[in-house]
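re: that chain from earlier
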Amino acid sequence: MAYDPRRNAYFRQFSELEYPTLANDRNSIYDYSRVKNIFRRSVIREDILNSYVTFEKYSIQGDERPDNVAELFYGDSSLDWVILITNNIINVRDDWPMANNDLYNYLSDKYTEQQLSNIHHYETLKIFDGQGRLIQPEGYWVDPDYSVTFLDGGVLKTESRIKSVSYLQHEIALNDQKRTINVLKQQYLEIFLRDNKNNMEYKPSEQYINPTLKKTENPRILSPK
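^ sequence. v structure.
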């Protein structure tokens, strides 16, 4: 069988429903339409999710999309949904780092040029004492008049080492924070895909037709009393 790169596409993983059709051209109240059950969503097994050895850190480069990362790690761009699910990303627009052009357009819509240059907040810089011990870590938000007092070699010192962060710098930092993701290692991919398939399949019930299809009740048909 020839390789089909679409076989792993996200919506092909979903089971289906036979649902009473809403089409205006239906022939009778007994007509059904087959639709994907988008209310069904797979989750990662806890033993895989909680094991650090099953994932590797990756920093999204430039304008890379989920399908680019899937192609890089799995050789299959249609597995982009695996990248998203394993990072609990539901809304790509909000949770994936924006491409440079998208970020520029977003900032242009949200701020004026003057606002982007205004100070958003202040952050601490590192301070070490004379013996090289860290007194103040970097990255904490502080007031503009913040200072720290510490004892260094028997001498009481007060230092103020902070930096201002503009709105532009803040927004770029927020976007860059989304660049670090966890990628499921190649050797665990088949386990995940198999588990996903099992989770998507239906169990026997009154509506059950087969593992990937069930038929919903038809509210237009009155149940016998």
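Helices lie at 46-49, 66-74, 80-85, 92-95, 100-110, 113-117, 167-177, 189-200.
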